[in-house]
Amino acid sequence: MSLLGNIIWFIFGGFIEAVTWWFFGIICYITIIGIPVGKQCFKMAKMQLAPFGKEIVEKDSTPIGLIANIIWILLFGWELAVINLVSALIFAVTIIGIPFAKQSLKLAYLSLMPFGKDIRKIK
Questions:
Q1: What is the pTM of this model?
Q2: Residues near 104 by beta carbon (within 8 Å), at least 6 away in sequence
């Protein structure tokens, strides 16, 4: 199921969204101060490319990660989460779209607060 879901996700927008995240990650890396944000952009690109068969796990949270998440939420994290939530609602209208809605909810969670989270393959 993961392979088929990732192929369908890739064809119907996952690739374009991942390229967009990579582009913004590269832009952030150009500025030295934006490197931590660029790392999160690359994390989102990796998840946007193929979200099926992956899970989000909490790493050790640090005060710096908490502050970075607060800044992320205030600047653009909440908008990204809302976009993914709307996408999940659209997918959830049909029965066949429910697995894609679950992946959009996973992306909404990651896009709201990406600092202190890691992406792992489900075994």
A1: 0.82
A2: 84, 85, 87, 88, 91
